[in-house]
Amino acid sequence: MSSTLLSTQGLVARYGDFQALYGIDFEISEGEVVALIGANGAGKSTLLKSIMGLLRVAPEMVRLDGRPVGGSKPNRMVSDGVAIVPEGRRLFTGMSVVDNLRVAIDHAAVPRGTAWTLDRVFELFPILREKQAVPVQSLSGGQQQMVAIGRALLNQPRLLLCDEISLGLAPKVVKEIYRAIPSISANGTAIILVEQDVGLARSASNRLYCMLEGRVSLTGRSQDISREVIGAAYFGGAHAVA
Ligand SMILES: Nc1ncnc2c1ncn2[C@@H]1O[C@H](COP(=O)(O)OP(=O)(O)OP(=O)(O)O)[C@@H](O)[C@H]1O
Question: Do the domain assignments include residue 95?
């Protein structure tokens, strides 16, 4: 695997007086797929928000290409090549599929490597080409998720943050969406996948981190970690490091 793209060191995050993260050490390399698993409230979304600049953290707690970027504004992170598919998608209702996608093109980072285009997004999710003129709110949940992923890709990210992209979708649709993950990483884009479905997280990723109550309870290569070890790290009990 190539060099470290993004890392966090001793990352601490708070919502007012409430401390949600306690010293998270995390890293992801170029083109790598890393899954982030853990029970509700473990701190997965908070870690993504801290990386994306949606929560204030100290500069040296997040590094991109070794440069301190913690606490940068989200639009600065986008222009530095980090994009997020937020939980709940946050699409622009009342606008067509293609207009939702075009919004991202206007705010894209300077393309590095192979740039994402509308055509390439339509190749990844062919149904979106057919539905491009349709108001986004009339799409199914799975199709809306495809738009959200496509929009983030059109930001030309080197790192894509995905927050529970399978949430509330039928298994068949989830499979369709997850089929896109290898194509995205093959393009050189690293991906952090926050995922509730542990089996899915494990099979889609190179490495995983399990979080428990604001801390990393387990990390290792996804294929090397047994379900039992993951179970212990997920629910607490023995502190596990594979
Ligand atoms: N806006 C907020 N204000 C206060 N506390 C928050 C806020 N958002 C999250 N928290 C708290 O921070 C902790 C971590 O939440 P976070 O959403 O990061 O967990 P998560 O692992 O992503 O879980 P989920 O799968 O439920 O989204 C939880 O205790 C949660 O209640």
Answer: no
